Structure to design on (357 residues):
């Protein structure tokens, strides 16, 4: 069983608190992705699991055993980092074999395991080459094969794809997901890229400023972000945010901003009336050309192929972005109304950013 439990884990660097009391349970065999902006404490958290950093306080257990006092090599983990750290003077074969040779595994077994790992990562033709003769994507596969070969129950990965070009990064996502399905090991993966987290994770841990903001399945986080921070971090384009107040009207609730009035879902508790809030709405929940909507002027259209983004000027602090059918004929300067699907409206406390609905 390779489940990992973090209990009240804190890491200070001098006076700076990088990780502020993280509690987390990584389930056996799950693909867990820690995501958040640069500097939020992802690498520090991962390094405390691996043993490269010691927690200032708190407890870390792997497979039911507290590992705080164990060296990295005693924790039964495999690690893949952004900096691949391949040995330049060794062949791909010897790079992959390295961990087994350290453990004095018999030569015949080394050979069959190296070949199997190379096969799994589709790099068998590269075994005689040196890292300098491999492309970025190939080197990434060598680094993964080198970890797979030691058969760890837990894989720790820190931004392993960030040095690859965009196309390769997308291909490698699919490959990593397949690899996880095949190995059935526990994966803990760190990235600042929300799309990587959404596409690969069984569950996502969103971090910000050294704390966990939300833990959940990708679609749960996308559909029900726990805070304005999480809402703004996931999804392209970024969620629209509008500041205003909730008011009661005709037995229901409405959101009232300086130049926009929006009906809210009937299911909302009436106690929210009077609250200062930020309303968040994703571009796919903006209806363009609605009767009785808010008037706006098309400022910009971005065709993306399968859909187009339309930016509306409506006198708000920032333009409002809507997703529309690319076949729809709209032009810059057109005057149109828009409104929001009440079910797609997210409400956040204006002061704390906490979700209210
Ligand atoms: N060895 C260190 N000494 C001092 N500060 C550090 C050290 N490592 C990380 N930090 C600080 O801790 C915070 C979290 O860093 P890190 O975990 O690397 O963030 P992330 O991986 O999310 O980008 C940052 O403010 C960073 O500057
Ligand atoms: Mg990092």
């Amino acid at each position: 069983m390779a489940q990992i439990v973090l209990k009240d884990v804190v890491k200070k660097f001098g006076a700076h608190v990088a990780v502020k009391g993280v509690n987390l349970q990584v389930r056996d065999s799950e693909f867990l992705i820690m995501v958040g902006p640069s500097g939020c404490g992802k690498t520090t958290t991962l390094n405390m699991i691996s043993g490269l950093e010691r927690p200032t306080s708190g407890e870390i257990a792997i497979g039911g055993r507290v590992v705080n006092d164990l060296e990295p090599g005693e924790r039964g983990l495999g690690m893949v980092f952004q900096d691949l750290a391949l040995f330049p003077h060794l062949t791909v074969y010897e790079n992959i074999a390295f961990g087994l040779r350290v453990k004095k595994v018999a030569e015949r077994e080394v050979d069959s395991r190296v070949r199997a790992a190379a096969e799994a990562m589709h790099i068998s033709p590269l075994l005689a080459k040196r890292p300098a003769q491999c492309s970025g994507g190939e080197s990434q596969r060598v680094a993964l094969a080198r970890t797979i070969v030691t058969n760890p129950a837990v894989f720790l990965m820190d931004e392993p794809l960030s040095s690859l070009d965009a196309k390769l990064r997308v291909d490698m996502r699919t490959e990593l997901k397949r690899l996880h399905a095949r190995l059935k090991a526990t994966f803990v993966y760190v990235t600042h890229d929300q799309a990587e987290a959404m596409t690969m994770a069984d569950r996502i841990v969103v971090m910000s400023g050294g704390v966990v903001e939300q833990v959940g399945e990708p679609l749960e986080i996308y559909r029900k972000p726990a805070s304005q921070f999480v809402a703004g971090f996931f999804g392209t384009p970024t969620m629209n945010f509008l500041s205003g107040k909730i008011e009661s009207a005709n037995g229901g609730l409405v959101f009232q901003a300086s130049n926009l009035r929006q009906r809210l879902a009937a299911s909302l508790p009436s106690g929210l009336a009077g609250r200062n809030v930020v309303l968040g709405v994703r571009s796919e929940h903006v209806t363009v050309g609605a009767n009785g909507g808010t008037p706006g002027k098309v400022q910009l259209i971005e065709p993306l192929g399968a859909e187009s983004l339309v930016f509306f000027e409506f006198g708000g602090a920032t333009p409002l972005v809507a997703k529309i059918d690319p076949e729809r004929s709209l032009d810059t300067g057109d005057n149109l109304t828009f409104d929001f699907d009440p079910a797609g409206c997210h409400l956040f406390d204006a002061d704390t950013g906490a979700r209210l609905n």
